[in-house]
Amino acid sequence: MSEQSQSNARRREEEEDDVAGTEPPGSDRGAASPSGPSFELTLTPQPEHIAAARQFVADAVRRLERSPDEGRVEDAKLLASEAIANAVEHAGTNVVVRVERTMLEGRSDGDAIMVSIHDESRTPIPKGTPPAPDQVRMSATSGRGLALINAIADEWGVVSIHDDGKVLWFVIEGS
What we know:
Elements: H1 3-8, E1 10-12, E2 32-43, H2 50-64, H3 70-91, E3 95-104, E4 112-119, H4 145-152, E5 155-160, E6 166-173
Antiparallel strand pairs: 1-2, 2-3, 3-4, 4-6, 5-6
Helix pairs in contact: 2-3, 3-4
């Protein structure tokens, strides 16, 4: 990863920006809210940055967890890697990756992690339920990302942002 991309990685303690469309947890629908620090990385759309972004997500999840669950770290890495790879390949714009602890409605322990991937492309992500991972051909070189996110994440969605692309987000709850 270039020095500029590394310098763009920064710790932030702020709430989600208001966006138009279906909101992720922590927004107007009130299902969850950010709780504590968040970690953010901005990268240019180059395939060689995907591995560094994957490691960034793993490190951020470990720092946010009270007692890191390596299974959850691996799930977050996998899903983020798929979403970031899609953004790099299909959007071709800078990508902002954000990782934060989130408070889910009905739980007081804040034991959920939300990862969001923002790109500046206005091209929508296809609607509908993606196929189950076992329905994707093993020989396929693409098409597994949303299926994996749908199968593993506890919640996920896509938010279109007026004049600023979209955010794909997912939540992984603790045990």
